[in-house]
Amino acid sequence: MKINYFEKFIGSGFLTGYIPTASGTFGSLAALVIYFIPGFEKLSILIPAIIIFMLYGIYVGSKFEKQYGEDPAECTVDEVVGMWITLILVPKTILFAVISFFVWRIMDIIKIPPARQVEKLKGGLGIMMDDVVAGIYSLVLVHFILLIFVRLNISLG
Fold first, then answer.
1. Residue 39, by phi and psi: left (phi above 0), alpha (psi -120 to 50) or beta?
2. Mean of the per-residue pLDDT values for the chain?
3. With contact defined as beta carbons under 8 Å apart, do 3 and 60 qualify?
4. Contact between residue 124 and residue 65 where contact means Cβ atoms under 8 Å apart
């Protein structure tokens, strides 16, 4: 099953999956850069982007797995989706972008249950869904941090 260029481009998180080290981190950074496109944070854009990339990621992730092996480093579309989930309704500031990025990377790496168990699903579903779960954890944690900032009356900008 051959992977065409478009599938490689999206499946590898805008080609970040082909960076030899820390491809998931670079995929997350690519997602963050895209998030800073003016208007991308609007739910009417962000939510459809998450859904489209998630569904396409399941499909293309299965193709990546057949070509590169189980949960390949080359497939980083899952990190893009997880990062975008983390950023839902987060203030679009450098401070919260940095906080969100680090919270997301930690949650993606430690994979709190059931993320670790979901990762064992076959094909693209396993590749994508563990990062969706980790993204949801990150989203909750970032909003908890945001609440602390508001409660302590710390500037968000």
1. left
2. 95
3. yes
4. yes
Residue pLDDT, tens place only, 83-119? 999 999 999 999 999 999 999 999 999 999 999 898 8
> What's the alpha-carbon Rg for the chain, to the nearest Å?
15
| pLDDT above 90: residue 149 | no
Rounded Cα–Cα distance for residues 138 and 150 (Å): 18
Task: Please check whether residue 112 is in contact with residue 137, taking contact to mean a CB–CB distance below 8 angstroms.
Answer: yes
How does pLDDT run across 19-45, given as a tens digit for each residue? 999 999 999 999 999 999 999 999 999
34, burial (CB in 10 Å: exposed 0-12, middle 13-18, buried 19+) = middle
Sketch the domain layout of the chain as residue ranges.
5-151
For residue 45, the surrounding DSSP H or E stretch is: helix 43-68
Q: Could you tell me which of 84, 82, 100, 73 has the C-alpha nearest to residue 34?
A: 84
**Collapsing DSSP states into helix, strand and coil, what is residue 22?**
coil
- Name 51's Cβ contacts closer than 8 Å, sequence gap at least 6: none
